[in-house]
What we know:
The protein is 79% helix and 0% strand. With 487 residues, it is mostly helical. The chain is globular. 56% of the residues are buried.
Amino acid sequence: MTDRAPQHGPRTGHRDLTQGPILSTLLIFSAPTLASNILQALNGSVNSIWVGRLLGDSALAATANANVVMFLLFAAVFGFGMAATVKVGQAFGAGNTDAARRTFGTAIGLCVGLSLVLGPLGWIFTPHLLTLMRTPPEIFAFALTYLRLIFVAMPASTITVIVGMGLRGAGDAQTSLRFMVVSVVLDIALNPLLIAGFGPIPPLGIAGSALATAIASYAAMLGLVVYVYARNLPLRLRGRELAYLIPHAAELRYILIKGLPMGAQMLMISASGLIMIGLVNQEGAMLSAAYGASLQVWTYLQMPAMAISAALSAMAAQTIGAGLASRLGKITRAGLILNISITGTLTLLLLAFDRPVLTLFLGPTSPAVDAARHIQFLASWSYVLFGMTIVLFGTMRAGGVVLVPIAVLGIAMYPVRLGFYAAAYPALGPDALWLSFPVGSAAAVLMATIAYRRPGWRQKARVVDQDECSEESQADGDCSGRMAPAL
């Protein structure tokens, strides 16, 4: 293997998305992203089931509080990782392996440096964060222990994510998926053993769940790094290349300029989630637990739309580049049809079988089950509207539109959603919280539709790299019950 490939040549794995049937192509092309994101979410869901069933509602509510905080902190890291993925892909497309390694080294150095700063700060300021979130006294101790230990895992999680995103930019999505499986299996297996104790292992309670996540994160990180060097994969850094870990000015500028908007959008969305859980916490531990279980379910409701949007962005980018304007509207319609069909079906199934699903997290005798069912009935269908919004954004991003999605989501999640809550709470009580989700989603899809139908962006559409469009689509996801954004 040579360190520097020829300077020109097609990127491996390229697929022509401008030909053939649109609907089936979009469905097939979005399937791997959906599978990866489901696997990522499954880890958090199974752990929540262990915590809820073994430790009770208060412990489950504590993990929901912690996940929203961690999603907020990971948002910036993911924004930078997305930007690096795009540039790594472009460098490999041009046959310039050294440039790809330089970008990758800068991304690793920047994001690991951030995590090494944020981890200790998080440990120190966790009590203050939980106080700001109005965490109920019944769950405060659980949340404090859990979140502090999760901060310990942050450097390992960051390295694993950035290496995986870099490999994906190089056209290798399988390696990171393998070690995601390792992390998930270890985490799921260790959770009950460390929570309840086994043999010489004492019962550690909520600390055991967080410790299981930390152990799985470091094991996956070490395994991934060893694998990259053992297989001599293109992004491994050796000798003088280790200096690339010190962020290079030009590379850093690109990653910051491209990554900050994506990171800012995720920060904006996750900050909204932080505010919402603070408002829920005011209603007491029982509703906090019900909301925590609902968040886990909502994670899956939004994933089909996110995968469809990412695939649609890549298709639309190629279509704009090929000058096939008439095909663009058909791609968007196909995305909307898929979203309504898949997300709508999942929502109906959830509402039909909500009790057994929620009982997995809360236990059959928990009073929070009925409260969670009520939340699901009022709010779950908002994710159909949410999906329509990000499908429209997926097409627009392919034409270079980046500010409209941020503005629309910002308006929908703050003045609309929080404004509705403030105005309706005196009359509706906690129901104002759950109804604010569909109200905000309806406002978002209305604004997105108006923006999409305006002809200006089509006339000014510029060709955007299809991988950049796909990465930006992942910035739309609501934090729901996840600890980190979708990959």
